[in-house]
Design the sequence.
């Protein structure tokens, strides 16, 4: 019961804090209103998250197996509830077609930054591995969480996905706007870099990969960038991808277990799109 009381206390503090960490008041009045209210800071270090399987069932199954996420240095998370006349600061400058996230009264603001014990490069070192991504027929329903039984048809799409990388500044803002259809409720602005290798098993192809932003128009950033907004529509979920930009390297591409056919370098990859997601 003591543990539950502590959780309730932390929840109450989070819900009632008018935050200032990573927030900057726009006028003297707002600064005065926020005096003494610091929000919530969480330092995460040496974290390791493992998941045996995530299974999506339609008629058949799409399974993601043996997921392992590591955070290899301190990641600092701040949780704040904005007051009137505040702006989000501390992130990198908006790039390409994207804009800084506007913060309104009552918005929930969550930021991820390199912690004080990091190596000082402004990013947190991360690792991600996925054993396999596979399709399975409807008979897999009796084996969820386990290997497919004999007679169950399966196809492995991806295997041996092993990535390391850097998680740069990340901002998440949940807007206090009623959540009505057409309103953007959640906005995410993130900088990151990844590299590693994967096997496209169903195509008998393997390759190394690197996602970054060290060439072309935005070569001063080094980190790939993604900014998106999420809200609802009358029929489902809307995702507005304002910006996805970076450079992609595909190296040592090999097919059929033979010698590499070479490398592929994609510079100034940029994607903008609006996605409406609903059932059928």
Sequence:
């Amino acid at each position: 019961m003591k543990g539950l009381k502590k959780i309730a206390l932390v929840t109450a503090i989070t819900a009632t804090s008018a935050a200032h960490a990573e927030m900057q008041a726009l006028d003297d009045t707002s600064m005065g209103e926020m005096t003494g209210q610091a929000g919530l800071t969480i330092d995460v270090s040496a974290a390791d998250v493992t998941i045996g399987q995530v299974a999506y069932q339609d008629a058949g199954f799409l399974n993601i197996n043996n997921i392992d996420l590591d955070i290899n240095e301190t990641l600092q998370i701040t949780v704040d509830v904005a007051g009137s006349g505040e702006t989000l600061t501390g992130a990198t400058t908006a790039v390409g077609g994207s804009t800084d996230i506007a913060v309104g009264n009552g918005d929930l603001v969550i930021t991820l930054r390199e912690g004080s014990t990091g190596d000082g490069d402004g990013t947190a070192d991360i690792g991600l591995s996925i054993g396999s991504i596979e399709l399975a027929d409807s008979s897999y329903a009796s084996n969820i969480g386990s290997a497919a039984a004999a007679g169950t048809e399966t196809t492995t799409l991806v295997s041996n996905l092993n990535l390391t990388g850097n998680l740069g500044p990340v901002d998440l803002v949940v807007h206090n706007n009623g959540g009505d259809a057409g309103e953007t409720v959640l906005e995410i602005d993130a900088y990151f870099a990844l590299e590693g290798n994967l096997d496209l098993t169903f195509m008998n192809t393997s390759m190394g990969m690197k996602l970054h932003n060290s060439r072309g128009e935005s070569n001063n950033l080094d980190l790939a960038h993604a900014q998106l907004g999420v809200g609802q529509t009358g029929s489902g979920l809307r995702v507005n991808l304002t910006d996805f930009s970076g450079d992609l390297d595909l190296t040592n591409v090999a097919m059929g277990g033979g010698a590499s056919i070479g490398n592929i370098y994609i510079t100034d990859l940029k994607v903008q799109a609006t996605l409406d997601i609903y059932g059928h």
Summary: The first strand starts at residue 23 and ends at 25. Residues 2-16 form the longest helix (15 residues). The chain has two helices and 14 strands.
